[in-house]
Amino acid sequence: MTYRYVALARYCDGLPVEDDFAIHEGPVPVPGDGQFRARHIWNSVDPGTRSRLSGSDTYAAAQTLGKPMDGFSVGVIEESKHPDWPEGTQIFFAGGWRTHSILNGKGFIGKVQEAGLPLSTWIGVLGVPGLTAWFGTREIGRFREGDRVLISSAAGPVGATAGQLARAWGASRVVGIAGTAEKCAWLTEEAGFDAAINYKAVDDLDAAIAENMPEGVDLLFDNVGNRMIDRVLPRMRYKGRICVSGQVADYSVAPAERDGIRNTMPFITHQVNMQGLVVFTFAKGFAEALTGMAKMIHAGQLKLKEERFEGLDAMPSAFCGLFRGENFGRRVVRVGDET
Ligand SMILES: NC(=O)c1ccc[n+]([C@@H]2O[C@H](COP(=O)([O-])OP(=O)(O)OC[C@H]3O[C@@H](n4cnc5c(N)ncnc54)[C@H](OP(=O)(O)O)[C@@H]3O)[C@@H](O)[C@H]2O)c1
């Protein structure tokens, strides 16, 4: 048995590339008192990670060169010196791009409870993407029944879940923006969106948004960044809300070179509210949200596409592809046996 992990080999400049990462090996770590070792089964790759790869801190500290990349994982406890976390327990946790983790039960961690769902669901709809969608829509977006909801990067795990939650909670219109015809077809045919705009295929995205949101936007759930927010601001309705969930178009751009937000007048004229989301601030509500979303999955109200990769070595390319629009749904990487 060998411990393997992916580390950042150098700080990223622009879009991340596979050579920014390196694979390392070492002895399998041994838990001390009050600790346990998890064997990872599934790891995720998350676009927000990019914000920590340029060497500067965000709300989370910059990724350290040579150390295992942070991320989310599902695994099983294989050695424990902690009474509450016995061997054999399946868990989801802030694990990372590695094959084993030493944990103490604190931070983002939970026991897999819902039977009958693939284990990888716990880093998908029932993981950080689903929680981001839930709290971004409900708490930051202050969702109200009848809302007209617009979502960017709508075919990604966060966007697709946010749209389906808004649909289930009584939105009057849900429109997604995504980068391929296939993604747009899935949004309308499978995920229950009213319409989807392929932003790479339309000549005039502003006009396409106006056409598809004829009565304006009550809630913009933005995963993309400043330029998207700026173009949607003039379409915001009175007391509209913008949830700043992510900035996937901006993470790889130096702050001084990012687009600005100029259409600020609706903040006054329409009393629009824009607020950023840090999903972990809602940790107290995670259990309730997970129970709610598990029920919706079983009821067929919540669907998520998943792309599966094999082996730890696949993690850098799975991650870099997120910024080329290659992923269609949640990217998960199998790094260990499920049995
Ligand atoms: N605030 C929080 O607490 C929190 C927590 C977790 C995640 N997030 C954020 O939620 C957002 C969505 O995450 P996710 O996991 O669901 O990933 P995701 O939306 O699947 O992100 C990858 C997708 O982003 C789109 N994209 C990539 N580069 C782009 C560009 N330059 N312009 C426009 N779109 C681009 C591509 O889709 P297209 O083909 O459609 O272009 C790509 O497939 C991310 O920004 C993430 O950081 C926030």
Automatic annotation (TrEMBL):
CDD domains: PGDH. The keyword Glycoprotein does not apply. Residues 157-289 form the Alcohol dehydrogenase-like C-terminal domain. Residues 4-108 form the Oxidoreductase N-terminal domain. The keyword Oxidoreductase applies. Keywords: Oxidoreductase. This is NADP-dependent oxidoreductase.
